Amino acid sequence: MITFKSPAAPDVIMLENLAEYLLGIIGKQLTARGVITHDEIPAAIQKLEAAVVTDKRERAEHDGRFHEGEEGHEPHELPIGLAQRAFPFLDMLRLAQKHDKDILWGV
Length: 107
Hints:
The chain is an alpha+beta fold. The chain has one domain (2-67, 79-105). 47% of the residues lie in helices and 16% in strands. The chain contains three helices and four strands; from the N terminus they run ββαβααβ. Helix 2 packs antiparallel against helix 3 (82-98). The longest helix is centred in the middle third of the chain and has 23 residues, at 41-63. The radius of gyration is 17 Å and the shape is globular. The two termini are 13 Å apart. This is DUF1840 domain-containing protein.
């Protein structure tokens, strides 16, 4: 579990693999300790929002190929998308930007 902290927002706790994935999207590596400085936050928000839009588009295209209810096709649920997984972290980024604060992990 990785805990992200900022004076501007409640802590965000997530599994290590999700933290590594989200940090990768914004151009950071998951290390034992790290920081997203207030100067890096606008670009991080932009990158993460772009990834969410791409994920939603790809999921919508995938939804169109489902054969739900057709004979011979088992019903199934889509896994949770990036928008849902990234929301708490994206919210933290936005609050940190608003209050000109950094985000830390591993402290």
